[in-house]
UniProtKB/TrEMBL annotation:
It holds the Pfam family His_Phos_1. This is phosphoglycerate mutase (2,3-diphosphoglycerate-dependent). The lineage of its organism: Bacteria, Bacillati, Bacillota, Tissierellia, Tissierellales. Substrate binds at R7, H8, G9, L10, T11, E12, S13, N14, R56. It comes from Anaerococcus vaginalis ATCC 51170. Belongs to the phosphoglycerate mutase family. BPG-dependent PGAM subfamily.
Length: 189
């Protein structure tokens, strides 16, 4: 079986370097990348589709022709807590102590009223473990940092977490057979 992660299409928040909110929607320019996603997904038989609870992932699934999907909050993006809706550069000026702590403890530092990367990896890992016994291929429309977290449920090496990038509309595929999980591809666009 395969678990195929697809990052949602481009949003205005992505373009403006803002922390997204649960209501963030796709940009009109999202469909350029998503048309490439459609072509890449033709190489896979999709038996079941999951999305995060966030609107942009559901809009992506619908654009790709998947009107029937199951929402699962474990596929949500990292919860940035109080930073949601703010510009990244402005938060770096306003919350210098937080960013210093994040620099020193990048995986265990929780965003104010949000979560840490370790929290995210735990919930994504829980999703993957639960779904890995499914008899068929699963498409998961999710988010950049959440998909990076999925890689580290397999790699178990957080030292390289920042070395991976996940583009809007790209797919990352896990091939799961006989309790072994292999990374088939990362960030295919």
């Amino acid at each position: 079986m395969k678990i195929i992660f697809l990052r949602h299409g481009l949003t205005e928040s992505n373009k403006e370097l803002k922390f997204s909110t649960p209501k963030t929607k796709l940009s009109k320019k999202a469909y350029i990348d998503l048309d490439k996603s459609k072509k890449n997904l033709k190489n896979y038989k999709i038996d079941k589709v999951f999305t995060s609870k966030l609107i942009r992932s559901q809009e992506t699934a619908k654009y790709l022709g998947f009107d029937e999907f199951i929402e699962d909050e474990r596929l949500n993006e990292l919860d940035f807590g109080d930073f949601k809706g703010q510009k990244v550069l402005e938060t770096k000026e306003k919350y210098k102590d937080f960013y210093e702590n994040l620099k020193n403890n990048p995986y265990s530092t929780k965003y104010p009223n949000g979560e840490s990367v370790e929290d995210l990896i735990k919930r994504v890992n829980d999703f993957i473990k639960e779904k890995s016994t499914y008899d068929g291929n699963i498409l998961c429309v999710s988010h950049g940092i959440a998909i990076r977290a999925s890689l580290f449920t397999v790699l178990k090496d957080l030292n390289n977490f920042k070395n991976f990038w996940i583009d809007n509309g790209s797919i990352t595929v896990f091939d799961i057979n006989e309790n072994k999980t292999m990374i088939e591809c990362v960030n295919l666009i």
